[in-house]
Amino acid sequence: MRIxxxxxxxxxxxxxxxxxxxxxxKEASKIKGYIKIVNKLEPVQARIKGxxxxxxxxxxxxxxxxxxxxxxxxxxxxxxKAIQFxxxxxxxxxxxxxxxxxxxxxxxxxxxxQSFEYRLIYNLRNMILHTHQLPYTQVMKSIEKPHEVILDxxxxxxxxxxxxxxxxxxxxxxxxxxxxLVEVINNSFPKLIRFHExxxxxxxxxxxxxxxxNAAYNLLQxxxxxQEKNGSxxxxxxxxxxxxxxxxxxxxxxxxxxxxxxxxxxxALSSNMIFRxxxxxxxxxxxxxxxxxxxxxxxxxxxxxxxxTGWIKVAEYLFELAEDISLYSxxxxxxxxxxxxxxxxxxxFIKREQSIVSQYFPKRKKINVDKNDEVIIIYFQDETAExxxxxxxxxxxxxxxxxxxxxxxxxxxxxxxxLGEEKVxxxxxxxxxxxxxxxxFIGPNEINSHNINYKNLSLDxxx
Length: 463
Known about the structure:
The chain is α+β, with helices and mostly antiparallel strands. It is 41% helix and 26% strand. The protein has 12 helices and 18 strands. It has helices spanning 25-38, 42-62, 71-96, 101-114, 116-131, 153-159, 165-174, 181-205, 209-226, 261-270, 339-360, 396-404, and strands at 2-10, 13-22, 138-140, 148-152, 178-180, 232-236, 257-258, 272-285, 291-293, 296-299, 303-306, 309-322, 325-334, 375-380, 388-394, 416-419, 422-432, 437-444. The strands form 4 sheets. The protein has a 6-stranded mixed beta sheet. A 5-stranded mixed beta sheet has the order 15-14-18-17-16. The N and C termini lie far apart (75 Å).
C-alpha cells in the first residue's frame, strides 16, 4: 500500500502527496490493526470537536481573520458549545459507562466550583437560551491591543432574572463591576481541555490499556517518520492513472484510510507511568525504570522500551525529608509527542506532587545560613525583594550531587532554570574569587530587572 499526505494550501484547496515509499502487505496489516484499536476511542474525538471548532473560530475573529462574523455570533456560539460539550459527555458516560458515573460527577463538580469562567458561561448560556441575546454593553477593537467585549455586572444582574442565586450572591459579594468576555473565553478553554482529558482518562481506563498504548506509540512513530508537510497521513491501495490524468474527462475514485493522529496523541497524553520512592538518592541511575534497593533510590533511564512501547522520562520531583532521606517521584510518558506537550505535562506533574507533599509535610524546613558556605541561593518573589528565602546553603559538591548533577559548574547572571514548576532567573550574582564563594539571588523569570530593589538583595538581612 502507498502512504499519502493531505495538507491544505488555502481555505478552499487541498493537496494530496503520494509518497514514493510503499508498505508491504505485512507492514500495512500492522498499521491497519493499530488504526482499528485506536479508533475505539472515536467518542473522545467527537466530544471535543464542536467546542474546539468554536474556539478556533473565536480566535480567528480575535485576530481579525474573519470580517463577516460579529462578536456576538462567535461568543454566543462558544458559550453554547462549551455547555453542550459537558452535557454530551455526561449523557454518554451515564448511557455507556455507568461504573464511572460517580467519578464524572466529581470532575463536573470540580470544574464548576473551581472555575469562575465556567460558572459565568453556564449562567450566560441559560440566559441566551431564554432571551436569545448576549448581555454585553461595550465592544472595543484595536489593532494594537486585544479586543474587549465588556459585560457590565450591574446590567447583567438586572436583565438576567433566571441567574443562579448562588452565583448572583458571588457576583454581588465580589464587587466586580465589569468583565471582559474575551478574557473569560481564553481562560476557560484550557480548563475545559483539562476537564476533557480527565473524563477521557476514565473512559480510557475502561479499555485494554497495553493494547491502546502500543497502538498509539506505533502510529506516532509512523507519523513522525513520514509526515513532511504538517498534513494528515493515511494509506491507500489505489494508484493514480498517470496515462489518463491529463484527459479532460478523467475521473477516478480513490479509497483512503486515514491514520487517527489526534486520537493517538490523546492516548499518549492520557497514559503515564508514575513512580514514587523513599530513600537516599544515588547519583547512579538504573538502566530501566526507577528502583529502590536497600534504602537507595536509583533514578530510571531517560528512555525505556517496555512491552514494545517507547517511554521517556518527562518530569522528576524531589522532596527532602531529612538528611540523606528523600521522597523521589517521576513520570514517564509515551514517546513521539511534541516537546510542548511534554512541558505542559511536566508542569502539571510538579504542581500535583507539590500539592501531595504539602498535605503531609505542610511546613517547609528552614535552612540555616552559614555565610562561610561555598554556595548560597536566595529566592525573592517580586520587584520589592522584601521577602528573601534561602533555598540552598552548602557546598558546591553537595549541590551537584543532590540537585543539579555533575555537568553543572555555576550559574551566570541572567541564567534561567526551573525551580519546581516555576521558571526563575539569576538577577544578582556575587562571587568571591579569593574564597571561591558564590551567592545567587533568583526570582520569577518574568520580573522586570530594571524595577528590582537591588538594595534588599543582600545577605545582611540574615543574621
